[in-house]
């Protein structure tokens, strides 16, 4: 407890002084709950202290019942915060570790923001190029919110004609327009209590924008052709690959709706700006398609990895996944080789089939690296062809088994990984 009279002794009881005093206590003891004691004529200053972060105040003279009630309120608030922190951390650690695994500082910032906003009901605006994974981020937010047991409804606004967008989002009454033969609930109604994800929000019509503004502003809407006002207990996450501020300047998007959507913006970086994650993502997709296609692909050829790092990825993560899927279909061995990828992916004339030339290196070092790349690829292919048999592989390669063992150790290859291949 802090006695306001002692706290302000010799100082003018200004709001700034009160804020500084409360924050100094919080800085020294972050977990402390502060109760301010004040004379009857200083209650206004006690209220200022509460606004600055104190947990409550008590007037002199102290009454046992008032002290007990204030202490109980603070105890209950601390319990609620503790439970929320525990649940948030437990659920995040439980199933998001793999999804949020990244080597990219930019993506770490994204996941930090997701963790902060997930437990709130705030509207989130995801921005970024097509294919960066905005829909996955939206689902991650939903899965770590207190709405995770309710529905997650995804709407691709750009795929719905302007004439139908309002009906899709808000529903319609029977006879509202030609073809409306029965009452239909909209996506907001279906998502009640859960989360609605509005992808490509910049494409919606002006009339639909007005209705969306009403939902965000008043938490209410009407079906097309209806008069009943429906309440909307829905968390809204929107996404766009366009600059909404620029669309506002052009008069194509309502500025007031933009402000309502842009409560908590999260910018998802393109793949070319997070190449630290390329190999992580590629291996993730390989494992996924191994399971789907009953394959046993265990690694990616170094030439392919070099091509990955030199490519600009205009289609972002989605393009990477599509390339890996195609390569997994074509690959018959245990290594994703350049032959399983389009020739143009390696530059003019399929040049990626030659070792990447790095002229920043001395000739001897560049030659050594090229030999290493070729040597490993040769050994992987030979081991796969011989089913992991060291004797057969050594005979095929024209070396002794001892030499082969040394080469395998040098390149981190294990015969067990190739045992089932014939």
Description:
There is one protein chain. Helix 12 (278-293) crosses helix 14 (316-330), helix 15 (363-385) packs across helix 16 and helix 16 (390-397) crosses helix 17 (401-411). The termini are far apart. Strands 5-6-9-4-10 form a 5-stranded parallel sheet. A 3-stranded parallel sheet has the order 1-2-3, with helices on both faces. It folds into 3 domains: 2-87, Response regulator (Rossmann fold); 105-269, Rossmann fold, CATH 3.40.50; 273-418, Helicase, Ruva Protein, domain 3, CATH 1.10.8. The chain is 48% helix and 10% strand. The protein is extended, with a radius of gyration of 31 Å. With 422 residues, it is an alpha/beta fold. The longest helix has 32 residues, at 64-95.
Keywords:
422 residues, alpha/beta, Rossmann fold, Helicase, Ruva Protein, domain 3, 3 domains, five-stranded parallel sheet, three-stranded parallel sheet, 48% helix, extended
